[in-house]
UniProtKB/TrEMBL annotation:
Transmembrane regions: none
Single biological process term from Gene Ontology: cell morphogenesis
Record InterPro entries: Adenylate_cyclase-assoc_CAP, Adenylate_cyclase-assoc_CAP_C, C-CAP_CF_C-like, CAP/MinC_C, CAP_C_sf, CAP_CS_C, CAP_N, CAP_N_sf
Residue span(s) of domain C-CAP/cofactor C-like: 168-306
Ranges annotated as biased composition (Low complexity): 152-171
Name of the protein in its database record: CAP2 protein
GO molecular function annotation: actin binding; adenylate cyclase binding
Compositionally biased region (Pro residues): 84-97
One GO cellular component term noted in the UniProt record for this chain: cytoplasm
Organism: Glareola pratincola
SMART domains according to UniProt: CARP
Lineage start: Eukaryota, Metazoa, Chordata, Craniata, Vertebrata
Length: 328
């Protein structure tokens, strides 16, 4: 079994991969999640430092410490039973008093008055005043000019939603820095000379909202995530985990070394250039279109499209799904 120090370090690297997704979703919306990620990763770092100082090869028990006797253990177990029980809760308060008689009398009087008016029959109209033609707005144009227009109660007059004015987009400062074990590449515009050197196996790269730019990552890195980018190019040497493309468009990726998995989600337009060493790479795609894999052949690249349309049929025992051939 591995020693505790290296094992905790591996768990820290694994946790970093998943906490990056939390940062991706809440980095600009909720700082509590960002603080939680930092605190959580700090637990592994502090635990690794503690192990290096006190338990390098595992748990060590003191050879010179006192030996617990059976009487001391019995006293510890029985001490808990001597505690007095907590006091009982206070009795419930008196029920609320409602003056139901007053409410009942008022309701009875109102109903009696209503029925008394209804029982008048035709005599109920005797109290109405006659309106002459000169007092009717539909027969007197001068009254219509004086009275404000009244909206019909049957029609909804909710103001129609107007198209919002194109507010100026908030500009962010471009970022290219190493934060802990994560390379942050954010808000790069029209930059084709971005380079990351001196990478380590435990590091990850997170690329966010970069447009019309190209990034080269040299060395070996744990994972790479491309999120909300447009017309972005990526060239890297080796990745031991996964390369993930999310919510992007017009992405070009070139693999110089090896990568086990490339994931494409909610992306329109993605071209992947594989190397001779990475031909066994697995491509996982969902809700994406215009995906092409370029394979090196005879000193050039041959393009193979990734299927976007599938057909599913029941074979008697299970569902069978296969790419659908488009008949032109």
């Amino acid at each position: 079994s591995p020693k505790p120090g290296p094992y905790v370090k591996e768990m820290n690297d694994a946790a970093t991969f998943y906490t990056n997704r939390v940062l991706k979703d809440y980095k600009h919306s909720d700082a509590r999640h960002v603080d939680w990620v930092k605190s959580y990763l700090n637990i592994w770092s502090e635990l690794q430092a503690y192990i290096k100082e006190h338990h390098t090869t595992g748990l060590t028990w003191s050879k010179t410490g006192p030996v617990a006797s059976p009487m001391s253990m019995r006293s510890v177990l029985t001490s808990g039973s001597c505690l007095s029980p907590p006091p009982p809760p206070p009795p419930p308060g008196p029920p609320p008093i409602f003056d139901t008689e007053t409410v009942k009398d008022e309701g009875t009087a109102a109903r009696s008055a209503l029925f008394a008016q209804l029982n008048q029959g035709e005599a109920i109209t005797k109290g109405l005043r006659h309106v002459s033609d000169d007092q009717k707005t539909h027969k007197n144009p001068s009254l219509r000019a004086q009275c404000p227009s009244v909206r019909s109660p049957t029609k909804s007059h909710t103001p129609s939603p107007t198209s919002p004015k194109n507010s100026p987009q908030q500009s962010h400062a471009p970022v290219l820095e190493l934060e802990g074990k994560k390379w942050r590449v954010e808000y790069q515009e029209d930059k084709n000379d971005l380079v990351i050197n001196n990478t380590e196996l435990k590091q990850v790269a997170y690329i966010f909202k970069c447009n019309k730019s190209t990034l080269q990552i040299k060395g070996k890195i744990n994972s790479i995530t491309i999120d909300n980018c447009k017309k972005f190019g990526l060239v890297f040497d080796n990745v031991v985990g996964i390369v993930e493309v999310i919510n992007s468009s017009n992405i070009q990726i070139q693999v110089m070394g090896k990568v086990p998995t490339i994931s494409i989600n909610k992306t329109e337009g993605c071209h992947i250039y594989l190397s001779e060493e990475s031909l066994d790479c697995e491509i996982v795609s969902a809700k994406s279109s215009e995906m092409n894999i370029l394979i090196p052949q005879d000193g050039d690249y041959k393009e193979f499209p990734v299927p976007e349309q599938f057909k599913t049929a029941w074979d008697g025992s299970k569902l069978v799904t296969e790419p659908a051939e488009i008949v032109g």
